[in-house]
Amino acid sequence: MTILTERMALNPGGPTAVVKDTIDIAGYPTRAASRALAEAPPASAHAAVVEGLLAAGFEICGKANLHELAFGTTGINHWTGTPANPRYPGRIPGGSSSGSAAAVAAGLAEVALGTDTGGSVRVPACCCGVFGFKPTFGRVSREGVMPARSSLDCVGPFAADLTMLTRAMRAIDKSFGALPQVTDVSLGVVPVSAHPEILQALEQALASSGFVLGEAPLPGMEAAYKAGMVVINRETWQACEGLLASDLVGDDVAGRLRAAGETSDAALAEAEAVRQAFTAEVDAALQCHPVLVLPTMPDYPLRLDEAADTRAVLGMTAFVRPFNLSGHPALSIPLEGAAGLPVGLQLVAAKGDDELLFAVAQALTARLESPVSDHGVSHDIA
Protein backbone atom coordinates (compact mmCIF):
# COMPACT_ATOMS: atom_id res chain seq x y z
CA MET A 1 0.00 0.00 0.00
CA THR A 2 1.58 3.23 -1.23
CA ILE A 3 2.28 6.21 0.99
CA LEU A 4 4.55 8.04 -1.46
CA THR A 5 3.91 8.25 -5.20
CA GLU A 6 7.32 9.77 -6.03
CA ARG A 7 10.66 9.69 -4.23
CA MET A 8 13.27 12.41 -4.54
CA ALA A 9 15.93 14.24 -2.56
CA LEU A 10 15.63 17.97 -3.12
CA ASN A 11 17.88 20.03 -0.86
CA PRO A 12 19.30 17.00 1.01
CA GLY A 13 20.57 17.32 4.54
CA GLY A 14 17.80 19.18 6.32
CA PRO A 15 14.70 17.97 8.12
CA THR A 16 12.66 15.82 5.76
CA ALA A 17 9.34 16.75 4.22
CA VAL A 18 6.87 15.22 1.81
CA VAL A 19 4.34 17.13 -0.26
CA LYS A 20 0.83 16.11 -1.27
CA ASP A 21 0.55 15.34 -4.98
CA THR A 22 -1.74 18.29 -5.61
CA ILE A 23 1.18 20.68 -4.97
CA ASP A 24 3.66 21.42 -7.78
CA ILE A 25 7.30 20.39 -7.55
CA ALA A 26 9.31 21.52 -10.58
CA GLY A 27 10.33 18.62 -12.80
CA TYR A 28 7.66 16.27 -11.47
CA PRO A 29 4.06 15.81 -12.67
CA THR A 30 1.17 16.74 -10.39
CA ARG A 31 -1.20 13.80 -10.77
CA ALA A 32 -3.51 14.16 -7.75
CA ALA A 33 -3.32 10.35 -7.46
CA SER A 34 -5.60 9.96 -10.50
CA ARG A 35 -5.12 7.75 -13.54
CA ALA A 36 -6.82 10.55 -15.50
CA LEU A 37 -3.68 12.64 -14.88
CA ALA A 38 -1.16 9.84 -15.36
CA GLU A 39 0.32 11.58 -18.41
CA ALA A 40 0.41 15.06 -16.89
CA PRO A 41 3.55 16.99 -17.86
CA PRO A 42 6.15 17.88 -15.24
CA ALA A 43 5.48 21.10 -13.36
CA SER A 44 7.57 24.00 -14.66
CA ALA A 45 8.00 25.66 -11.26
CA HIS A 46 7.75 24.92 -7.57
CA ALA A 47 4.60 25.90 -5.72
CA ALA A 48 5.17 28.82 -3.36
CA VAL A 49 4.96 26.54 -0.31
CA VAL A 50 7.59 24.22 -1.79
CA GLU A 51 9.86 27.22 -2.33
CA GLY A 52 9.25 28.08 1.31
CA LEU A 53 10.25 24.64 2.55
CA LEU A 54 13.43 24.62 0.48
CA ALA A 55 14.39 28.14 1.55
CA ALA A 56 13.94 27.09 5.19
CA GLY A 57 16.36 24.18 4.74
CA PHE A 58 13.93 21.28 4.45
CA GLU A 59 14.79 18.29 2.30
CA ILE A 60 11.82 17.28 0.15
CA CYS A 61 11.99 13.53 -0.13
CA GLY A 62 8.76 12.66 -1.91
CA LYS A 63 5.26 13.34 -3.14
CA ALA A 64 2.47 11.90 -1.02
CA ASN A 65 -0.49 9.81 -2.11
CA LEU A 66 -4.06 10.99 -1.54
CA HIS A 67 -7.73 10.25 -2.07
CA GLU A 68 -8.12 10.65 -5.83
CA LEU A 69 -8.46 14.29 -6.94
CA ALA A 70 -8.60 15.24 -3.22
CA PHE A 71 -12.32 14.41 -3.38
CA GLY A 72 -12.94 12.03 -0.51
CA THR A 73 -12.54 11.58 3.23
CA THR A 74 -11.35 7.98 3.64
CA GLY A 75 -8.02 8.03 1.77
CA ILE A 76 -8.99 4.89 -0.14
CA ASN A 77 -7.51 4.89 -3.64
CA HIS A 78 -7.94 1.94 -6.00
CA TRP A 79 -5.36 3.15 -8.55
CA THR A 80 -2.34 4.25 -6.54
CA GLY A 81 -3.19 2.08 -3.52
CA THR A 82 -4.47 3.12 -0.13
CA PRO A 83 -1.79 4.26 2.33
CA ALA A 84 -1.67 1.98 5.35
CA ASN A 85 -2.38 3.65 8.68
CA PRO A 86 0.98 3.12 10.45
CA ARG A 87 -0.19 3.61 14.04
CA TYR A 88 -3.66 2.12 13.78
CA PRO A 89 -3.39 -0.80 11.32
CA GLY A 90 -6.56 -1.80 9.53
CA ARG A 91 -8.12 1.64 10.03
CA ILE A 92 -8.56 4.17 7.23
CA PRO A 93 -5.77 6.77 7.01
CA GLY A 94 -8.33 9.52 6.40
CA GLY A 95 -8.54 11.80 3.41
CA SER A 96 -7.91 13.42 1.35
CA SER A 97 -4.30 14.02 2.50
CA SER A 98 -3.86 10.36 3.45
CA GLY A 99 -0.28 9.88 2.32
CA SER A 100 0.90 13.08 4.01
CA ALA A 101 -0.44 12.01 7.42
CA ALA A 102 0.72 8.42 7.00
CA ALA A 103 4.24 9.50 5.99
CA VAL A 104 4.65 11.45 9.23
CA ALA A 105 3.09 8.70 11.34
CA ALA A 106 5.40 6.13 9.74
CA GLY A 107 8.50 8.26 10.27
CA LEU A 108 9.15 8.59 6.54
CA ALA A 109 9.29 12.39 6.93
CA GLU A 110 9.43 14.85 9.80
CA VAL A 111 6.78 17.07 8.27
CA ALA A 112 4.32 16.86 5.41
CA LEU A 113 2.17 19.30 3.51
CA GLY A 114 -1.44 18.57 2.73
CA THR A 115 -4.45 20.57 1.64
CA ASP A 116 -7.65 21.05 3.59
CA THR A 117 -10.88 21.90 1.75
CA GLY A 118 -13.34 20.22 4.09
CA GLY A 119 -11.12 18.66 6.74
CA SER A 120 -8.51 17.04 4.51
CA VAL A 121 -5.59 17.83 6.84
CA ARG A 122 -7.33 17.51 10.21
CA VAL A 123 -9.19 14.25 9.49
CA PRO A 124 -6.12 12.25 8.38
CA ALA A 125 -4.10 13.82 11.21
CA CYS A 126 -6.71 12.48 13.62
CA CYS A 127 -6.89 9.06 11.96
CA CYS A 128 -3.11 8.58 11.96
CA GLY A 129 -2.39 10.09 15.38
CA VAL A 130 -0.36 13.16 14.39
CA PHE A 131 -0.75 16.93 14.56
CA GLY A 132 -2.43 18.68 11.62
CA PHE A 133 -3.15 22.36 11.03
CA LYS A 134 -5.47 24.28 8.71
CA PRO A 135 -4.37 27.94 8.63
CA THR A 136 -6.63 30.95 8.32
CA PHE A 137 -8.01 30.91 4.78
CA GLY A 138 -5.77 32.94 2.48
CA ARG A 139 -2.86 33.20 4.90
CA VAL A 140 -0.70 30.60 3.12
CA SER A 141 -0.14 30.92 -0.62
CA ARG A 142 -1.93 28.47 -2.90
CA GLU A 143 0.15 29.40 -5.95
CA GLY A 144 1.01 26.15 -7.71
CA VAL A 145 -1.65 24.14 -5.86
CA MET A 146 -4.48 22.16 -7.45
CA PRO A 147 -7.23 23.29 -7.89
CA ALA A 148 -6.12 26.73 -8.95
CA ARG A 149 -9.24 28.38 -7.52
CA SER A 150 -10.98 27.62 -4.24
CA SER A 151 -12.85 29.60 -1.62
CA LEU A 152 -12.25 26.87 0.98
CA ASP A 153 -8.92 25.16 0.41
CA CYS A 154 -5.81 25.79 2.55
CA VAL A 155 -2.31 24.31 2.46
CA GLY A 156 -1.42 23.05 5.92
CA PRO A 157 1.32 21.03 7.66
CA PHE A 158 1.46 17.72 9.51
CA ALA A 159 4.06 16.76 12.10
CA ALA A 160 4.51 14.33 14.97
CA ASP A 161 5.27 17.17 17.38
CA LEU A 162 4.49 20.85 17.79
CA THR A 163 8.12 21.92 17.42
CA MET A 164 8.29 20.63 13.87
CA LEU A 165 4.75 21.74 13.07
CA THR A 166 5.75 25.28 14.04
CA ARG A 167 8.92 25.08 11.98
CA ALA A 168 6.92 23.97 8.96
CA MET A 169 4.44 26.81 9.38
CA ARG A 170 7.23 29.36 9.56
CA ALA A 171 8.63 27.93 6.34
CA ILE A 172 5.39 28.25 4.36
CA ASP A 173 4.15 31.44 6.05
CA LYS A 174 6.83 34.08 6.55
CA SER A 175 4.39 36.18 8.61
CA PHE A 176 4.02 33.44 11.24
CA GLY A 177 5.32 35.17 14.36
CA ALA A 178 6.21 34.51 17.97
CA LEU A 179 3.71 32.59 20.07
CA PRO A 180 1.74 34.77 22.50
CA GLN A 181 1.23 34.23 26.21
CA VAL A 182 -1.91 32.25 27.02
CA THR A 183 -2.19 32.91 30.76
CA ASP A 184 -5.61 34.57 30.54
CA VAL A 185 -7.01 32.58 27.61
CA SER A 186 -10.25 30.70 28.20
CA LEU A 187 -11.47 27.81 26.07
CA GLY A 188 -15.02 27.64 24.78
CA VAL A 189 -16.18 24.03 24.62
CA VAL A 190 -18.52 23.51 21.67
CA PRO A 191 -21.24 21.00 22.64
CA VAL A 192 -21.52 18.21 20.05
CA SER A 193 -22.87 14.68 19.75
CA ALA A 194 -20.04 12.15 19.43
CA HIS A 195 -18.95 8.69 20.51
CA PRO A 196 -18.91 8.61 24.34
CA GLU A 197 -15.23 7.64 24.41
CA ILE A 198 -14.37 10.59 22.15
CA LEU A 199 -16.11 12.99 24.51
CA GLN A 200 -14.53 11.31 27.53
CA ALA A 201 -11.03 11.70 26.09
CA LEU A 202 -11.61 15.41 25.47
CA GLU A 203 -13.13 15.94 28.90
CA GLN A 204 -10.15 14.30 30.58
CA ALA A 205 -7.68 16.33 28.52
CA LEU A 206 -9.45 19.60 29.22
CA ALA A 207 -9.81 18.84 32.92
CA SER A 208 -6.02 18.47 33.10
CA SER A 209 -5.28 21.46 30.90
CA GLY A 210 -5.37 24.22 33.49
CA PHE A 211 -7.44 26.46 31.20
CA VAL A 212 -10.64 28.16 32.26
CA LEU A 213 -13.47 26.46 30.41
CA GLY A 214 -16.88 27.69 29.30
CA GLU A 215 -19.58 26.50 26.95
CA ALA A 216 -19.66 27.92 23.42
CA PRO A 217 -22.66 26.63 21.44
CA LEU A 218 -22.53 26.88 17.65
CA PRO A 219 -26.09 26.07 16.57
CA GLY A 220 -25.26 26.79 12.93
CA MET A 221 -22.71 24.00 12.60
CA GLU A 222 -25.00 21.49 10.89
CA ALA A 223 -26.13 24.05 8.33
CA ALA A 224 -22.50 25.07 7.76
CA TYR A 225 -21.51 21.42 7.29
CA LYS A 226 -24.16 20.99 4.58
CA ALA A 227 -23.39 24.34 2.96
CA GLY A 228 -19.69 23.51 2.86
CA MET A 229 -20.46 20.40 0.84
CA VAL A 230 -22.47 22.45 -1.65
CA VAL A 231 -19.52 24.80 -2.19
CA ILE A 232 -17.05 21.90 -2.42
CA ASN A 233 -19.24 20.19 -4.99
CA ARG A 234 -19.54 23.25 -7.22
CA GLU A 235 -15.85 24.15 -7.03
CA THR A 236 -14.61 20.59 -7.51
CA TRP A 237 -16.91 20.15 -10.49
CA GLN A 238 -15.56 23.33 -12.04
CA ALA A 239 -11.97 22.15 -11.51
CA CYS A 240 -12.32 18.51 -12.54
CA GLU A 241 -15.30 18.05 -14.85
CA GLY A 242 -13.03 17.86 -17.91
CA LEU A 243 -11.38 14.71 -16.58
CA LEU A 244 -14.57 12.65 -16.75
CA ALA A 245 -14.40 12.36 -20.54
CA SER A 246 -11.25 10.25 -20.20
CA ASP A 247 -13.19 7.48 -18.38
CA LEU A 248 -10.09 7.11 -16.22
CA VAL A 249 -11.41 8.64 -13.01
CA GLY A 250 -12.14 5.99 -10.38
CA ASP A 251 -15.78 4.93 -10.23
CA ASP A 252 -16.32 6.23 -6.68
CA VAL A 253 -14.92 9.68 -7.41
CA ALA A 254 -16.50 9.85 -10.87
CA GLY A 255 -19.92 9.18 -9.35
CA ARG A 256 -19.45 11.94 -6.80
CA LEU A 257 -18.25 14.32 -9.51
CA ARG A 258 -21.31 13.72 -11.68
CA ALA A 259 -23.54 14.34 -8.69
CA ALA A 260 -21.57 17.49 -7.87
CA GLY A 261 -22.26 18.76 -11.37
CA GLU A 262 -25.95 18.95 -10.49
CA THR A 263 -25.36 21.63 -7.83
CA SER A 264 -27.73 24.48 -8.63
CA ASP A 265 -27.04 28.19 -8.52
CA ALA A 266 -29.85 28.53 -5.99
CA ALA A 267 -28.23 25.97 -3.68
CA LEU A 268 -24.91 27.77 -3.99
CA ALA A 269 -26.52 31.11 -3.13
CA GLU A 270 -28.11 29.54 -0.05
CA ALA A 271 -24.75 28.09 0.95
CA GLU A 272 -23.09 31.49 0.67
CA ALA A 273 -25.77 32.96 2.94
CA VAL A 274 -25.03 30.22 5.47
CA ARG A 275 -21.31 30.98 5.15
CA GLN A 276 -21.93 34.60 6.14
CA ALA A 277 -24.20 33.68 9.06
CA PHE A 278 -21.97 30.94 10.43
CA THR A 279 -18.85 33.08 10.16
CA ALA A 280 -20.58 35.74 12.26
CA GLU A 281 -21.66 33.07 14.75
CA VAL A 282 -18.11 31.78 15.19
CA ASP A 283 -16.72 35.31 15.46
CA ALA A 284 -19.24 36.06 18.23
CA ALA A 285 -18.31 32.92 20.16
CA LEU A 286 -14.64 33.86 19.91
CA GLN A 287 -15.41 37.21 21.50
CA CYS A 288 -16.30 35.29 24.67
CA HIS A 289 -13.57 32.64 24.46
CA PRO A 290 -10.46 33.28 22.31
CA VAL A 291 -10.16 29.58 21.45
CA LEU A 292 -12.94 27.06 20.81
CA VAL A 293 -12.48 23.34 21.37
CA LEU A 294 -14.35 20.31 20.04
CA PRO A 295 -13.51 16.86 18.67
CA THR A 296 -11.87 16.62 15.27
CA MET A 297 -14.07 13.63 14.37
CA PRO A 298 -17.34 12.37 15.88
CA ASP A 299 -16.22 8.73 15.98
CA TYR A 300 -13.15 6.53 15.72
CA PRO A 301 -11.78 6.00 12.20
CA LEU A 302 -13.57 3.24 10.34
CA ARG A 303 -11.94 -0.04 9.49
CA LEU A 304 -10.99 -0.21 5.82
CA ASP A 305 -13.60 -2.87 5.10
CA GLU A 306 -16.32 -0.60 6.51
CA ALA A 307 -15.43 2.44 4.40
CA ALA A 308 -15.96 1.36 0.80
CA ASP A 309 -18.76 3.85 0.07
CA THR A 310 -17.26 7.34 0.30
CA ARG A 311 -20.69 8.96 0.35
CA ALA A 312 -21.66 6.91 3.39
CA VAL A 313 -18.78 8.24 5.48
CA LEU A 314 -19.04 11.97 4.80
CA GLY A 315 -20.20 12.48 8.39
CA MET A 316 -16.55 12.10 9.39
CA THR A 317 -16.14 15.76 8.51
CA ALA A 318 -19.09 17.07 10.53
CA PHE A 319 -16.85 18.95 12.99
CA VAL A 320 -14.16 20.16 10.56
CA ARG A 321 -15.84 21.24 7.32
CA PRO A 322 -17.79 24.12 8.95
CA PHE A 323 -14.51 25.93 9.68
CA ASN A 324 -13.45 25.68 6.04
CA LEU A 325 -16.68 27.45 5.17
CA SER A 326 -15.99 30.18 7.75
CA GLY A 327 -12.24 30.39 7.08
CA HIS A 328 -11.10 30.16 10.72
CA PRO A 329 -7.79 28.45 11.59
CA ALA A 330 -8.07 25.02 13.21
CA LEU A 331 -5.53 22.62 14.70
CA SER A 332 -5.96 18.91 15.50
CA ILE A 333 -4.09 17.49 18.51
CA PRO A 334 -3.70 13.68 18.74
CA LEU A 335 -5.15 11.85 21.74
CA GLU A 336 -6.36 8.31 22.31
CA GLY A 337 -9.68 6.99 23.56
CA ALA A 338 -10.34 4.22 26.04
CA ALA A 339 -10.32 1.66 23.21
CA GLY A 340 -6.76 2.64 22.27
CA LEU A 341 -7.96 4.26 19.06
CA PRO A 342 -7.24 7.77 17.79
CA VAL A 343 -9.10 10.86 18.95
CA GLY A 344 -8.49 14.39 17.73
CA LEU A 345 -8.87 17.45 19.95
CA GLN A 346 -9.60 20.37 17.62
CA LEU A 347 -8.81 23.99 18.51
CA VAL A 348 -10.32 26.91 16.56
CA ALA A 349 -9.37 30.60 16.81
CA ALA A 350 -10.20 33.93 15.21
CA LYS A 351 -8.96 34.58 11.70
CA GLY A 352 -5.31 35.59 11.85
CA ASP A 353 -4.82 34.12 15.35
CA ASP A 354 -2.96 31.08 14.04
CA GLU A 355 -0.09 31.65 16.48
CA LEU A 356 -2.54 31.64 19.39
CA LEU A 357 -3.67 28.13 18.45
CA PHE A 358 -0.09 26.90 18.54
CA ALA A 359 0.51 28.57 21.91
CA VAL A 360 -2.61 27.01 23.42
CA ALA A 361 -1.73 23.62 21.93
CA GLN A 362 1.77 23.89 23.41
CA ALA A 363 0.43 24.72 26.86
CA LEU A 364 -2.30 22.10 26.69
CA THR A 365 -0.06 19.22 25.61
CA ALA A 366 2.61 20.20 28.12
CA ARG A 367 0.05 19.90 30.93
CA LEU A 368 -1.25 16.52 29.85
CA GLU A 369 0.00 13.05 30.45
CA SER A 370 -0.62 12.61 26.77
CA PRO A 371 -1.01 9.14 25.23
CA VAL A 372 0.87 10.42 22.20
CA SER A 373 4.01 10.78 24.32
CA ASP A 374 4.54 7.07 23.61
CA HIS A 375 5.11 8.07 19.99
CA GLY A 376 7.95 10.44 20.86
CA VAL A 377 6.03 13.69 20.83
CA SER A 378 7.92 16.73 22.10
CA HIS A 379 6.07 19.46 24.00
CA ASP A 380 8.73 22.18 23.67
CA ILE A 381 8.65 24.80 20.95
CA ALA A 382 11.86 26.69 20.27
From TrEMBL:
Q: Which residues cross the membrane?
A: none
Q: Which PANTHER family match?
A: AMIDASE AMID-RELATED, TRANSAMIDASE
Span of domain Amidase: 18-357
| Listed Gene3D superfamilies | Amidase signature (AS) domain (3.90.1300.10)
For this entry, the protein name equals Amidase
Q: Which domain of life is it from?
A: Bacteria
The taxonomic lineage of its organism, from the top, reads:
Bacteria, Pseudomonadati, Pseudomonadota, Gammaproteobacteria, Pseudomonadales
Q: What is the originating organism of this protein?
A: Stutzerimonas tarimensis
- What Pfam family is a match, any one? Amidase
